[in-house]
Every structure is written in structure tokens, then in C-alpha cells.
Amino acid sequence: MTETGTSTHTIGLRSPGLEPEAIECVVVVPTFRRPDHLIATLRSILGQETARSFAVIVVENEAEQREGLAAAGPFFETGEAQGLCIVAHERGNCCAYNAGWETALSVFPRFRYLLSIDDDELADIGWMENMCSAAEALGADIVGGPQVPVFDNPAHARWADHPVFSPPHQRTGRVEALYSSGNLLLTRQVLMAMGPPFLDLRFNFMGGGDSDFLSRARKKGFVLAWCAEGQVHETIPPRRLESDWIRSRSLRNGVISTLVERGYRADSPWGRMRVTGKSLALLAASPLRATARLVTKRWPASAIYPVYVAAGRVLAEFGYVNEQYRQPEKN
């Protein structure tokens, strides 16, 4: 296997007969130590019902063992999948996405849409078409879609309503904010305007680089939208229902909220003070918000969420960083 690329990533595999100029959509799939699920993710992408020409970029983020590259390789070597497998040299969520998005720009000169999906997700059969059609119908530059949680145990279905797992929007239409790259469409114009590196490496092991990127894109004037029909299904391992994981994720969401808002208001008068004031106000109000959620939801695990988020926002003011992805075995 001959590898070419840049200092941040190399191209490990390229499907035979690939015609980059003919590709309308590029699907980027970062992967880290989930070879079996990656195969299922790829099959869900290759089974899309769409007339649009598309290519797939698998981004291997385990540069040593490369289990994802080995699992995806046969799809590209046989031509079943059109596209590339690349290896991101530096580990981390932001490094993987940056490598994939940069490769899309450099290899596919005429693509219109880039779609991102994680290696623990399965795309609905109409996912790609629904996301692209929503961008066109709504005049949107960026489109997000639901990451529907899937639990091994049917008894855990209630967790789909927890704020950690529930989608930020319910209906298709233009929105003011999006948060996740796990189910996302970007136009080529967005990537060209934002330029590499797209995701800030401060968020590499914490998550939130996508939220920060989307916030900055909105500030530049790009139109955001939500496509309720563009669903992917995310496999939720039992570990993510344990109380310490939920608490850690909730605190992390608060930290990210402060950091993203701080960046958004960086050029505003008294921006830093406004962010701090909002954090303190949310902390003061969080017991009342938690009580209200307890009355309506009758579920303590959901009710405590506003308290954790508010606490995370305030902790961020003192430099607290929750790098949940630093130890993948605990995530």
C-alpha cells in the first residue's frame, strides 16, 4: 500500500476507477477502535436510495493498529465503495474531522455537499437524499439531523428522552443553532470560507469542536437548518447509561457551552463578563429548573441535568476542562 498525503494525514487506500470530478456528495466517517460497527456504518451508507453520485472518506484515527482501515479496506479495494481511506496521524476527534474535511476539499474539486456520520451510527436509507433536499428547499448552508439513540436493552428506551440523548430540534426548518458533527451536512462554500483547520484543537479530547465550528459559521452569516427526516441511529453502549458517565457528559456540555459562547462574543464589548454573568444566573436558577423538570418528568436523572450543565459552565470560568475522550475505554 503506497501512502501519500500531508503532515497531518496520509491516504492509505483509494478505490480503483474513482472519478473525483463526478462526485456530488462526500461522506466523511471518522473511526476509532470500532471496526465491526464501522462495517455496518459503511453498509448503511452504501445502501442509500439516491441518484446523487457520492464518495466515502473513512478517517482512521488509530494510527498504530489501524483496525478500522483493515475493516474498511475490502469495500474500497473491490470498488464496492467509491472513495478513500485515510489515516489521521494525531489522535483526537478534531484531528480526525479536520483530516477528513480537508481531504474532501483537496481530492474532490466539484462536490456540493459534505456529510458527516460517526462510526457508531447507521444511516436511514433516505438519509443522504433527505439531508441534501432539505439544504436545497430551505436555502441552508448547514443542515443537522437527529441521532436517534438505540439501546441494547428495551428497558432503557426511556433514556431517549434524557437531554444528553434527545435531539435539539423536533421539526424540519431553519434554526439558530446546531451542535453535532455526528449527523451533519455542509456545503462546499462553508468549508472554503471557514478554512482549515476547521475544528479547534482545544476541543480535541473534550468534544465541542463541532459546536464551536457551527457557532463560528453562524456568526459568518451561514444559514443553519434542521432536517427531522435525515435520521441516523446511534448505538448507545450500557456504559453511557451509568450515572458517572451521564454526570461527566452533562458537566462537559456546560463547559463547552461557556467556551463556545465565549468565542462567539469575543469581539463584543464586555463579552467575557456577559458570559460569566449568564453562567452565574443559570447556576442560581438551576435548582428551580431542576425542580420543574422533576415535577413534569418525574425522573431524577433527567431533572438534575440543568444543575450539572450550570455547574459545568461556572467551572469553565476557572479553567476546568472535562476531556471525556482522553480515555476511550471509559467512554
What's the architecture of the largest domain, going by CATH? Alpha-Beta Complex
What would the CATH topology of the largest domain be?
A: Spore Coat Polysaccharide Biosynthesis Protein SpsA, Chain A
Question: Which residues form runs of ≥5 with pLDDT under 50?
Answer: none
CATH class of the largest domain: Alpha Beta
Quickly give the structural class: alpha/beta
**What's the CATH H-level superfamily name of the largest domain?**
Spore Coat Polysaccharide Biosynthesis Protein SpsA, Chain A
- The SSE string, one letter per element, is EEEHEHEHEEHEEEEHHEEHHHH
Distance between the termini: 32 Å
What is the average per-residue confidence, as pLDDT, rounded to a whole number?
A: 94
Q: Estimate percent helicity.
A: 40-55%
Question: Mind telling me the C-alpha Rg?
Answer: 20 Å
Helical run tally: 10
Strand content: 15-25%
- The quaternary structure here is single chain
Please tell me the total number of domains.
2
* Form type: globular
The number of strands is: 13
Largest sheet: 10 strands, mixed
Strands in their spatial order, largest beta sheet: 1-2-5-4-3-6-11-8-12-10
Secondary structure elements and their pairing?
Elements: E1 4-5, E2 9-14, E3 25-31, H1 35-46, E4 54-60, H2 67-77, E5 83-88, H3 93-107, E6 113-117, E7 121-123, H4 127-138, E8 142-144, E9 147-151, E10 173-175, E11 183-187, H5 188-194, H6 209-219, E12 224-226, E13 232-236, H7 243-264, H8 271-297, H9 300-303, H10 305-317
Helix pairs in contact: 1-2, 6-7, 7-10, 8-10
